[in-house]
């Protein structure tokens, strides 16, 4: 049975409640989404890198999981450079492709903003255990317990999809069904996986209802979620990163509301 990738339990981040990590990531993300300048993104990336360097995370496990984000930032920068809003000096033009000072600046800001928002989010969630996150959301954030527990149960079953896909592929190949075209083979596998997921979800719902997960009223928790000094320090650091990025951007005259 496959499970989701285990959370990284080493380093200073392991002491912080998952709800605090989620709050810090959202705070930085919403702050950077309010502007489109590159100064705030650079400040955020530098400060985030400095903070993450002292967390004690095993970078051999972190860097491979950051590669899709880095590739996405590069692709977004290239696309914005070629097809962004033209302004200023024209460096190269061919058909609808036009590279200008404005498109280059906006491309740099876009790529940096993706990294500034994505890197802390990915790193923080790599250190979060789904069960602890559900406990924090239900007990600290006060989200509905039925929703949180149902989402946790569904998340725990995601890892089974890979085992199901592999088992269905081998079974269909042994029966000679996989000898058809690739499109038909994948369509059959997706449909079979969908039917299997519906059946498993129905059984899980029945089991959870029979154990009282859907009952109304106050609920007890096996693992109490609490906030401590580490959570206060983490939230203060997140607020400081967001505030410093905004202050530097405004002081340099680079701040530009995304709605304007």
TrEMBL record:
Output the InterPro entries linked to this UniProt entry. ABC/ECF_trnsptr_transmembrane (IPR003339), ECF_transporter_component (IPR051611)
Q: How does it sit in the membrane?
A: Multi-pass membrane protein
Does this entry carry the keyword Membrane?
yes
Q: Does the keyword Membrane apply?
A: yes
Key words, A-Z = Cell membrane, Membrane, Transmembrane, Transmembrane helix
Q: Where in the cell is it found?
A: Membrane
The membrane spanning regions, by residue number, are 66-84, 104-128, 140-162, 182-198, 233-258
Protein name, entry field: Energy-coupling factor transporter transmembrane component T
Q: Which organism is it from?
A: Gryllotalpicola kribbensis
């Amino acid at each position: 049975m496959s499970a989701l990738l285990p959370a990284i339990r080493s380093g200073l981040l392991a002491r912080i409640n998952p709800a605090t990590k989620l709050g810090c990531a959202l705070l930085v993300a919403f702050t950077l989404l309010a502007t489109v300048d590159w100064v705030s993104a650079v400040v955020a990336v530098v400060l985030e890198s400095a903070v993450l360097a002292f967390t004690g995370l095993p970078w051999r496990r972190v860097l491979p999981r950051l590669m899709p984000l880095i590739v996405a930032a590069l692709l977004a920068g290239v696309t914005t450079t070629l097809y962004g809003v033209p302004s200023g000096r024209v460096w190269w033009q061919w058909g609808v492709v036009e590279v200008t000072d404005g498109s280059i600046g906006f491309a740099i800001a876009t790529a940096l903003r993706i990294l500034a928002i994505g890197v802390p989010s990915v790193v923080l969630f790599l250190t979060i255990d789904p069960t602890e996150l559900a406990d924090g959301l239900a007990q600290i954030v006060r989200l509905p317990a039925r929703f949180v527990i149902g989402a946790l149960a569904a998340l725990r079953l995601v890892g089974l999809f890979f085992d199901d896909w592999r088992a269905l592929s081998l079974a269909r190949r042994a029966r000679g069904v996989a000898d058809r075209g690739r499109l038909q083979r994948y369509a059959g596998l997706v449909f079979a996986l969908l039917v299997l997921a519906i059946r498993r979800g129905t059984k899980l719902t029945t089991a959870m209802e029979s154990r009282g997960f859907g009952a109304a009223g106050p609920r007890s928790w096996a693992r109490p979620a609490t906030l401590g000094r580490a959570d206060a320090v983490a939230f203060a650091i997140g607020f400081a990163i967001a505030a410093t990025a905004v202050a530097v951007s405004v002081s340099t005259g680079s701040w530009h509301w995304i709605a304007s």
